[in-house]
Amino acid sequence: MNIAYYPGCTLKTTAKEFDISTKAAAKALGINLVELSRWNCCGTVHALAKDDVMHHLAPLRNLLRVEEAQQSGIVDEKKVVALCAMCYNTLKRSNQAFNADADKAGKVRESMNNEANVYSGQVEVEHLLETLRTQGWEKVQARVTKPLKGLKVAPYYGCLLLRPRGIGVDNADNPRIFEDLLVSLGAEVVDFGYKQKCCGSYNTVHMVDVVADLSNRILSQAQAAGADVVATACPLCEYNLGNRQIEVTKKYPKFYSIPIVYFTQLMALAFGLGEDETALGMNKPDPRPLLREKGLI
Amino acid sequence: MTENSNRMVTIYVMGKKHTVPADLTIMKAMEYAGHQFKRGAGCRGGFCGACATIYRKKGSYKLQGALACQKMVEDGMYIAQIPFSPAEKKSYNLDDLKPDASTFLEQYPEIARCLACNTCTKACPQDLQVMDVVQAALRGDITTTAKLSFDCLSCGLCAVRCPAEIVPYNIGQLARRMYSKYFVGPTEHVEQRVKEVEDGKFDEELNKLKAIDKPSLKKLYDTRDMEA
Q1: With a cut of 0.85, is the ipTM above it?
Q2: What is the pTM of this model?
Q3: What's the pLDDT band for B185 if we cut at 50, 70, 90?
Q4: What range does the domain containing B149 cover?
Q5: Cα B130 from Cα B172, distance rounded (Å)
Q6: B interface toward A at CB cutoff 8 Å?
Q7: Low-confidence ranges of chain A (pLDDT < 50)
Q8: How far is CA A178 from CA A21, A147, A184, A224, B205, in A?
Q9: What pLDDT score was predicted for residue B1?
Q10: Are A141 and A273 within one domain?
Q11: Residue B135 and residue A41: Cβ atoms within 8 Å?
Q12: Which residues span the domain enclosing A11?
């Protein structure tokens, strides 16, 4: 099946391992993610202010591209798969706002009147985790050639994957979509109290200290619960929990390092794909020594 | 004489009404009306980007961009020239630049403010996908940024219209420079020509031109071979 794929800027720059492993893992499952030939920044959460039409143009223009791709037969459905939690959230919320408010929709259309086509509002925005759940976890399980046996993985959701209600991929208080995936891959799921807490998001730019505090709390909780590794579905969470461990260690000398990986990298690994496709050499800190120790690579 | 040659239209140059023949470009119509171009005119052939113009047609709210030497006048056109855009242009040494997304953001951090409103694209007289140029730069795709901006004349209209104060034409230029240095590399014909210049292949002709008197030089210029 050909599904429109919206990678977002981060997956093309600092989170390339998320992009590489996603395409490989999806392909292994027979899901052909077709990257939109033209796309722009998702608009990030700026688009969500109520009276703001201008900021909705970026996300909705991407959805128009999906519709155009579907109309020209490049993809099968009026549906787009996003990976970055920020992109997913923004595209979906903007789409919802467009469909809920005819007045706003009219203003958006007027502002995009140089486009060859008019956006209908009918594109469905989906996270890859949802695509997998819809297909059935047994399909994922059937593709596993190297179960992640003995690997204790703490799934970290963060904020934007679960909130607000009606947008999130699962129940915000008791999610299980991430856990279901990890079980299908043969990993041991480690539950911990901070899996839905915020990583500090954009504060990482100007308030590194705040992010160091949050990352320390989240990661220490995961470690106390017995995790070997933390899995994420968001490049900003990955950055704050991973790269920022340098700042965490400076502030909290007792802190010890733990690898952070994308869920798609664990999928690629369990599907028996090589390092070109798991892209496990690109994460900071490096997860490979741990995975070698566990006999998984 | 063309069929339209007797037809006249009304245009407004900086608010002042003129009646001009309908088969003229904006540039020629302005000269017809008595304006003399000291800035804002260059090649007169649609290649140099010097004659950036903003116009609006009667009954429409849209401000549109054009090159004065290419766009024909239309009845009820309101016209203003933008001979220079005081947009930011960075100085850098190409040898010191890293060919990736960080370079665009370091040199022109305002690209991160792009709202994808597409106003730049609407303004472009070359019909380039200007917004896609900025967006490709934002994600560090140097090749796409360079290729999409290849026909840019740096007329400046996109920068003047951008609500985020981005200078798309300088972003494209930076991309094309990095693309040619880091992805394409030196080409044989350019190196060959540089060597010919250095070896003095054109010295004789140049010296001849330098020695010639002004009326003869003018005659030579007027009778030169021109590309169609």
Answers
A1: no
A2: 0.80
A3: confident
A4: 94-184
A5: 9
A6: 100-101, 114-118, 121-122, 129, 131-132, 135, 138-141, 163
A7: none
A8: 17, 16, 10, 20, 75
A9: 44
A10: yes
A11: yes
A12: 2-129
